[in-house]
Amino acid sequence: MAGCTDLAFRLIAREYGMEMAYPEMISAEALVRQTRQTLDMMKTVPEDRPLGLQLVGSDPDRMAEAAQIVEGMGYDLVDVNIGCPVKKVTGQCAGSALLRDPDLAARIFQKMAKAVKKIPLSVKLRLGYNDSSGKEAIEVAQSAERAGFSSVAVHGRTRSQGYSGQANYDAIGRVKKALSIPVFGNGDVVNEKSARTLLAKSSCDGIMVGRGALGNPWIYKLINAVIENKPLPDPPTFEEKRKALLKHFEYMLIWEGERAILKMRRVGVWYFSGEPGVVRFRDRIQRCTENKEIRELIETFQPLPLDNESSSLEAVA
Q1: Which of 16, 56, 173, 224 is such that its CA lies 20 to 30 A from the CA of 104?
Q2: Which active-site residues does the annotation give?
Q3: What's the pLDDT tens digit per position in 69-125?
Q4: SS3 157
């Protein structure tokens, strides 16, 4: 979700039912050094609550110092990233690489638990580095629990899988059974069926949603309805998607300035993914160079396919 969960994303998502959120993960080292880019990624407003912050790093002292900073800035929770699979993170023994070094992960948890006094601590991890059984996740999660962490979120893939294959909900369930603190399941939740399957197979305490929410802020109320066994909300109409996208764009203009143009080339396609003509929309928005052009394109776009546009191209991520 790097580059996705900015302030504009969170504000529009909260309007449609999202309750708890995180900006993109933050390097503990960069936060301690107070780099401009890091502080920019952390910008928030009072209505953007409750809000956690996820730290990534492998130095226990730096992680503890960064956690203290997060607490002092008024965030509601500090999370440890032991899930990121990208090489530039795992190459520094951070992210999901910590699954291969449970002793180091335990030292990080212990240092952070001593440093943070007022807000809860949590950890997000994958099932394992290569092992999909959940054994590695259980070992690391149990050390977090012993250190006093309040919850765990488990993505149902290994580091070696990246984002390929299917999330293993049964293995998430094995992590759940091994802990007494709440466990949240994550991975491949995009609709009612996947939410019900995750809950049924894992018995997890809740659902963390990532990529399934891109251009789909309606998913939060849908998941809540599944969890609470309530009637499902109606799916959004095309005009409702258009309205939400326009509001998202307005938030981006406020908080991103000229960067909104570049970001909308991706965000706009999220909302219209699966609609007939989305390939045409994607091509047109890539050529937009002014805010006015983007707004007019969104306001006038109609989901009508071209004669030579293959339906197989419509699911644009």
Answers
A1: 173
A2: 84
A3: 999 999 999 999 999 999 999 999 999 999 999 999 999 999 999 999 999 999 999
A4: strand
C-alpha span between 262 and 259 (Å, rounded): 6
User: Residue with structure tokens 């203290």?
Assistant: 68
Mapping DSSP to helix (H, G, I), strand (E, B) and coil, where does residue 60 land? Answer: helix
What pLDDT digit, counting tens, does each position of 131-189 carry?
999 999 999 999 999 999 999 999 999 999 999 999 999 999 999 999 999 999 999 99
Number of Cβ atoms within 10 Å of the Cβ of 14:
18
> According to DSSP H, which parts of 33-130 are helical?
36-41, 60-72, 87-90, 102-115
**Backbone torsion region of residue 185, taken as left when φ is above 0, otherwise alpha when ψ lies between -120 and 50, otherwise beta:** beta
Q: Of all helices (H) and strands (E), which one includes residue 269?
A: helix 259-272
Q: Is-contact 108 137, C-beta < 8 A? A: no
pTM tops 0.90, yes or no: yes
What is the per-residue pLDDT for 1? Answer: 77
Q: Which domains does the chain have, with CATH numbers?
A: 7-227 (3.20.20.70), 238-313 (1.10.1200)
